[in-house]
Each structure stands twice: as structure tokens, then as C-alpha cells.
Recover the amino acids of this structure.
């Protein structure tokens, strides 16, 4: 069997549970994905509550985010292939982990792409992640055109005004936001604030990676 | 943008063109660009499109994309004469065989030993091809080999347009009278080359990946003549009509490797010290072994550098090594395509993971220049493997055949 990520040939382990779960990653690639860290709000390794999250709490904008893995080494290779080259079938690698996420919320809401970006990339990476989880996916957010976040510094990101808009009534719903990578958290916080404004009851978030 | 003989995805087409273009579906039951089976993945065209994972780095191709080409015929080739050559009698024999194959539009394998001077033997063939209005392609597995060949050919052929293609070269999607290319770049070309030279057919990417042969086949015209060049052809390639050249251009025999079984660290250190004042190459089987040997040699007061395939500054390190008389520890990446003057070679753990072809290529690094035609090749091993015996035997047989 070939590893989906590095293409190397490997022998899948012969355990009974592996009969029904397909092994897609070779053991060497698998251990490269490190689980989330200590911070209880964003999963950053180091402290029990990182400085950024303390800052959000002080401003009374707490958003509990559960990243699955840390964004380093192989996670970066994965994102390069998945998001930028467009290898959408590669997401199967995280299928078991995403299925295991317990969704108690009413709706799963992926972070939207701007129409221009969607036309160029032809898929929304967050939506695909959301659709892989067990829960009801609703596309209640919309995004106005803007500059891609990855070109901006942290300060610029925080300064920018909110590009999101709620297009369906969300009053009284509990919502799980889904994104691919959590870097500063500004995207998720902006989306969450718009959803709270529209009357959502409780919001938390799940991301695939937490950058360190 | 000239698209004749080329096939690119339609989203790469930046400017509108005034002449009619031919559109084809990008992915049918197979990928129309690389020929592999596609995978299914989500897409916003409303359906789950099929897309090709194997040629993803050249831009994603989906079922809802199209490939575009220009159906008009290509420009005629400008004929050109090469500069004066002085070939040995043996080289002339091979060059004549190549010219004959090109005239008859057939296939040929040139089995010539390392350092036989393969490049100048191609020139009469290229000249004949250009004079009979046929487009020439020379393809090599590695970008550094392509760069070196381009330099050679630019000096030999002044009139013809020469295009060199590799990842990151400036004339992307160009098509010259003579095109020199890495095999991966040929994925964008369709039926436009009439004479194809494949250098080092048994080298690393070809050996493991049959799709590269498909790229070459798709890029060539139906009645193209195909000339394969190799020092260690595989059995599969040996089925072709073959000409053999078992003698180096300077007329000296190939250096025969000697075995040292078993060996210890002090043997290696002694070997390095006896050849002080000359550049020394040490081949190791794995990347992990580089560091252990480096520390081992440094304890003895010998400074050395290491090179492996994933090394970011490997080109600068090799270039620096060319000027000095130091010690370089390397994996098999330097096994072909490098010419170092008066180099001495040792293979550490030669019984492990070196194929006999690799050992032959490694011993072919030694004595390539006419000024220093001899050198020392040692295979250090703790066990005698078949591959070592095969390599030594084949080198000896080549020498016997060349000096009969």
C-alpha cells in the first residue's frame, strides 16, 4: 500500500480493527502529526491558557476552539497539497479523526471563502472538512471580497474590519464553526461575533490545525 | 503564445488568440495529460469531478476542465552544421550507427562505458536530423545534466535555436530546433519531436517510474527514431538493436574496483590519508550513515563535507568541492553526471543497497580526464555480495572487449 502523503510503499499493520478502517498514512508520516497542545481555549502548546486567549477572555469574547493537530512539518506538506494544489481526496487521511469529533451543536458552519477565491480554487477547504464530520452542515455565512489573510501581519489582521455576513436566521441555535488552520484566531472570532449578533446561542469551533 | 505541438489546460491560456484552437476533455476515463487513472473529489461545478492526482504539480486537471492545443503544423526546422569534431575511430563507428538509425527511422541502444564521450557522438546525428527537417529532442533525467548538455550544444550548433527545459528554466513551453529537456517537462508536448535521444535510460526516475517513458512516447511523432544512451542498460532495453563502445575516449581502460572485505574504520581513515592531496569521494548507502562517518573522520582530524538529495545547498557544495582537494561524503546522488578531475572513490558498505549498475557508475567517476586516466576505486564491505562481483566482472569484461 502506498502512503497518501509521501507516496512510499508500506505494509499496513495486521490488526482486526484495520479491516474496516483503511490505512492511508505510513507509520513514519503518521507520527509526524502532533496532537493539540495545552491551552484550553485554542490548543497552543505551552501554557494552560495562552496570552492571546487571556486577551480574548478579558475582552469578553471567549471562543473555545479544538484544533486536532499542530501545524508543523507534515501538516504543512498536507496543507500545501490539499489546499493549494487542490488534492481534495487527500482529506481522507483525517477521516477517522474528524468522524470522532463529538458534535452536540445544532449546526456545523464552515468558514466561507470569498466568491473570487472560490472560483479560483473551486472548493472550500473548510466546507469539505465540515462535511466529513458527523452533524448538520449549514452554510449560513457569506464573505465579502477581501485580501487573503496569509499575506498580512498579525497587527493588520486584527485591524481589518469584519468581512462576514449572516445570510440565514440563526436565532437560538448552537453552532460549531469549522476552519482549516487557526493562526491568530481573528477569522473565527470575527465570524463568531457576527453569529452572536444574529442571535446564536452558543458557539465553539473546531480546526484541523493550530499553528505554533 | 504559440501552442503548436503543446497541450496545456485552458485556464493557463492568458491571452485570447485569433486563430482556431482545438479543445479536448482533460480527464476522461484517464488523465489525458499523464495517462494515469483519476481520483474523484469535490468540485463546485455541481458534481463530484474526477481529477488527476499524479500530475497535480503541473496544475490540477478536472473533468470540467479542457486541454487546449493549436492544430496548425509546426515551422520547418533550420538546418545547421556542427563545429569541427575530432572523434576517435570507435566514436566514429557509433556516430555512423546513429546517423544510419536516424535515416532509417528506427530505434537504437548505444551501450557505451562511463567516460566514452557520448555527447560529441550525437552531433553528426543531430546535424543529419536537422538537415532532413526533423526536430530533435534530447532528454535527461536530471536538471544539472540538462544544463551541462545545453552548454555543450550551444557551443557546437550556432545557427539552430536551442531550448532547454527544466523545472524553473526561463523558456517554459518553448520549442526549438533542438530541445533539451528533463523528462517531466515533456508532459506538455504532443507529437512534435522526430528524433529523440534519451540519456541515461536506466537512471533513477526512469527505472522506478514507467510513466516517464509514456511522457516521452506522447511527445514523439509516430515515426520518430529513438536512440537510448546508457552505460548500464537494463535487460529490457537490451532487446533493442545495440551498438557497443567499451573504450573511453582517451584510450585508457576503466579502473577496476578492488574489494576490501572485511574492513574497519582505520582502513577507511588510512585510505583517505594515503590519497591526501587529491579530491576523494566516499559513497555511503543511506543518508543516516553520512553523519556517523563524518564524526568518525573528524575525530581523526580529517575535515569533510556531506551531500545528499534533500540538501538545500548541494549544488554549491559540489561546486566548491570541484575546486578543492578535500573529502566529500555523499549518497548515490553523485553516482552519475559528475566529472571531477583526478578523483579517488571509495564505497562504504558496498554490499548494502548498491545495485551493480550503481557500482559501475560510481567506478566510472574515476579517471575521466585524459591527464589523469587512472585512479583508485575501493569497495569497502563486510560481506561479499553478488552485486559487487557482478560490477567488477562487468567492468573487467568491458575492458577485455575494448582492448581486444
Amino acid at each position: 500500500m502506498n502512503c497518501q502523503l509521501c507516496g512510499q510503499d508500506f505494509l499496513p499493520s495486521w490488526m482486526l480493527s484495520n479491516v474496516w478502517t483503511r490505512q492511508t498514512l505510513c507509520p513514519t508520516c503518521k507520527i509526524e502529526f502532533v496532537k493539540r497542545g495545552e491551552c484550553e481555549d485554542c490548543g497552543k502548546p505551552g501554557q494552560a491558557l495562552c496570552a492571546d486567549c487571556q486577551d480574548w477572555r478579558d475582552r469578553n469574547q471567549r471562543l473555545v476552539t479544538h484544533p486536532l493537530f499542530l501545524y508543523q512539518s507534515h501538516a504543512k506538506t498536507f496543507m500545501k497539497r490539499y489546499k493549494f494544489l487542490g488534492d481534495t481526496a487527500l482529506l481522507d487521511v483525517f477521516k477517522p479523526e474528524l468522524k470522532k469529533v463529538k458534535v452536540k451543536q445544532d449546526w456545523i458552519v464552515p468558514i466561507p471563502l470569498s466568491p473570487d477565491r472560490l472560483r479560483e480554487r473551486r472548493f472550500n477547504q473548510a466546507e469539505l472538512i465540515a462535511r466529513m464530520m458527523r452533524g448538520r452542515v449549514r452554510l449560513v455565512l457569506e464573505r465579502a471580497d477581501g485580501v487573503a489573510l496569509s499575506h498580512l501581519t498579525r497587527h493588520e489582521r486584527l485591524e481589518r474590519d469584519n468581512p462576514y455576513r449572516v445570510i440565514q436566521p440563526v436565532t437560538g441555535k448552537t453552532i460549531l464553526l469549522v476552519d482549516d488552520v487557526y493562526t491568530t484566531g481573528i477569522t473565527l472570532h470575527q465570524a463568531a461575533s457576527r453569529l452572536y449578533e444574529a442571535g446564536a446561542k452558543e458557539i465553539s469551533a473546531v480546526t484541523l490545525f493550530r499553528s505554533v | 503564445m504559440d501552442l503548436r505541438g503543446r497541450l496545456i489546460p485552458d485556464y493557463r491560456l492568458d491571452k485570447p488568440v485569433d486563430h482556431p484552437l482545438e479543445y479536448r476533455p482533460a480527464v476522461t476515463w484517464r488523465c489525458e495529460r499523464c495517462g494515469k487513472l483519476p481520483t474523484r473529489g469535490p468540485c463546485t461545478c455541481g458534481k463530484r469531478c474526477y481529477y488527476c492526482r499524479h500530475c497535480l504539480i503541473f496544475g490540477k486537471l478536472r473533468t470540467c476542465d479542457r486541454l487546449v492545443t493549436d492544430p496548425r503544423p509546426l515551422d520547418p526546422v533550420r538546418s545547421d552544421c556542427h563545429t569541427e569534431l575530432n572523434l576517435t575511430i570507435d566514436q566514429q563507428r557509433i556516430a555512423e550507427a546513429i546517423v544510419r538509425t536516424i535515416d532509417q527511422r528506427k530505434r537504437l541502444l548505444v551501450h557505451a562505458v562511463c567516460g566514452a564521450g557520448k555527447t560529441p557522438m550525437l552531433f553528426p546525428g543531430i546535424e543529419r536530423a536537422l538537415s532532413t527537417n526533423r526536430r530533435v529532442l534530447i532528454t535527461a533525467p536530471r536538471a544539472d545534466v540538462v544544463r551541462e548538455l545545453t552548454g555543450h550544444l550551444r557551443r557546437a550548433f550556432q545557427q539552430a535555436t536551442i531550448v532547454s527545459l527544466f523545472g524553473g528554466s526561463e523558456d517554459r513551453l518553448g520549442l526549438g530546433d533542438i530541445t533539451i529537456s528533463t523528462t517531466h517537462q515533456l508532459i506538455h508536448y504532443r507529437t512534435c519531436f522526430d528524433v529523440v535521444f534519451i540519456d541515461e535510460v536506466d537512471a533513477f526516475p526512469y527505472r522506478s517510474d514507467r510513466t516517464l517513458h509514456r511522457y516521452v512516447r506522447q511527445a514523439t511523432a509516430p515515426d520518430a527514431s529513438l536512440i537510448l544512451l546508457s552505460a548500464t542498460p537494463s535487460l529490457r532495453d537490451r532487446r533493442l538493436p545495440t551498438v557497443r563502445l567499451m573504450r573511453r575516449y582517451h584510450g585508457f581502460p576503466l579502473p577496476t574496483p578492488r574489494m576490501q572485505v572485511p574492513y574497519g574504520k582505520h582502513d577507511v581513515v588510512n585510505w583517505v590519508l594515503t590519497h591526501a592531496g587529491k579530491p576523494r569521494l566516499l559513497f555511503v548507502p543511506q543518508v543516516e550513515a553520512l553523519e556517523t562517518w563524518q564524526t568518525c573522520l573528524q575525530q581523526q582530524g580529517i575535515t569533510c563535507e556531506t551531500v545528499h538529495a534533500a540538501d538545500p545547498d548541494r549544488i554549491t557544495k559540489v561546486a566548491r568541492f570541484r575546486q578543492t582537494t578535500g573529502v566529500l561524503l555523499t549518497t548515490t546522488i553523485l553516482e552519475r553526471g559528475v566529472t571531477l578531475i583526478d578523483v579517488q572513490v571509495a564505497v562504504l558498505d558496498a554490499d548494502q543497497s548498491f545495485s551493480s549498475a550503481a557500482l559501475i557508475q560510481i567506478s566510472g567517476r574515476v579517471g575521466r580526464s585524459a591527464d589523469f586516466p587512472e585512479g583508485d576505486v575501493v569497495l569497502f564491505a563486510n560481506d561479499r555480495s553478488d552485486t559487487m562481483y557482478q560490477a567488477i566482472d562487468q567492468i573487467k569484461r568491458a575492458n577485455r572487449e575494448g582492448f581486444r
